[in-house]
Amino acid sequence: MLAKRIIPCLDIKDGQTVKGINFLGLRSVGDPVELAAAYSEQGADELVFLDVSATVEGRKAFAGLVERIAEKINIPFTVGGGISSVEDASILLRAGADKVSINSAAVRNPFLISDIASRFGSQCVVVAIDARNIDGVWKVTTHGGSRASDKELFSWAVQAEEYGAGEILFTSMDHDGTCGGYACAECRTLSDLLGIPVIASGGAGNAGHIAEVLSDDGGCADAALAASVFHYGEIMIPDLKQELAASGIPVRV
Fold first, then answer.
1. Which of 88, 130, 174, 176 is an active site residue?
2. Is 88 a known active-site residue?
3. Within a domain: residue 251?
4. Run means of pLDDT, 10 residues per run, the chain, 253 residues
5. Does residue 130 carry a catalytic annotation?
6. Does 145 map to a domain?
7. CA Rg value for the chain
């Protein structure tokens, strides 16, 4: 069985790592280069760097910051935010990212997924899906969760895989920043539907939540992404991995 991955997420705004609730009320929680280095040293399996304001403000992800982070770590690194072309992806991959994450642009133009996958390989393409439950239907949202699209979570995830996505990063906007646990039922449905890894995001409040979303009888996710609990030191990655291993969840310790 493949080891489950623990992935700290660095949401970036104006060069600082920020965190809020449901992507709102963002406040600075530290320097992204320092945090990236610390997480790498603690034993994180990967990092995700998302410029949370890039799409909204029409800016591109800052390649220089990507270079500085990449110089400080020795683990895989995904970058997203404002990527709308193969050239955008190329710039970030050349800057040191191992993968790129696309969201709003992929919803507008699904062929962007296949274009990037054809150029760099599916293993480099993470399709991020931000969704919320609207009147009983999980609707895909864009622009940092501020706009509802006409796409439904599960059908869009299947389409993204068909277009060439190598992974799906699912964030429940209803759970994000609440520290009340992940959307485990939805993660499990995605895992059952897809043949590619599912990264669960949104809602981690303690080690039990992470264990639940990774467990075979819980969310069955391949990886758990979290931010606040790591940024504020509420969960230390070595302790978390020891606890997960003790409960029978395969992790790299």
1. 130
2. no
3. no
4. 92 75 55 92 95 60 84 95 91 95 96 98 98 96 87 98 98 90 98 98 96 97 94 93 97 95
5. yes
6. yes
7. 16
